[in-house]
Amino acid sequence: MRRHVMVLVLALGLSGCMSAQEMADYRAQKQTQLAAAKFAKANSESDPSRIICKETETTGSHMGGKKTCRTAAEWDKRLQQDKDDLHTMIPKTAAPGH
């Protein structure tokens, strides 16, 4: 009987049981960490100074492409410039019926 009690005490001592307060604190800490990680990810995706690298293929070549790295703001500016250039190259047609 004494041996069973010792085994039980030893098992409970080694099991690392947390009190209800310790468990609540642990859960709150994990929720805070998760919220901070989500916030950091959301802000990094909208950060105009983050670096984005894209690989472009060279037309007519079977060799690898060229890797270009720019900030998100530079890529946005480049996209807008390309759209503006395209609109100036395409001749404006008259509206139907004119």
Percent strand: 5-15%
Radius of gyration, in Å, reads: 31 Å
Count every helix, treating DSSP H or I runs of 4 or more residues as helices: 3
> Structural class given helices, strands, pairing?
alpha+beta
Kindly report how far apart the N and C termini lie. 105 Å
- Percentage of helical residues? 55-70%
Strand sequence of the main sheet, in spatial order?
1-2
**What ranges have pLDDT less than 50 throughout 5 or more consecutive residues?**
none
Query: How many beta-strand segments?
Result: 2
Element pattern in H and E: HHEEH
Strand count, sense and closure of the main sheet? 2 strands, antiparallel
Structure in words:
This protein is α+β, with helices and mostly antiparallel strands. It contains three helices and two strands, in the order H-H-E-E-H. The protein has a two-stranded antiparallel sheet with strand order 1-2. The longest helix is centred in the middle third of the chain and has 27 residues, at about 20-45. The N and C termini lie far apart (about 105 Å). The model has no long low-confidence stretch (mean pLDDT about 75).
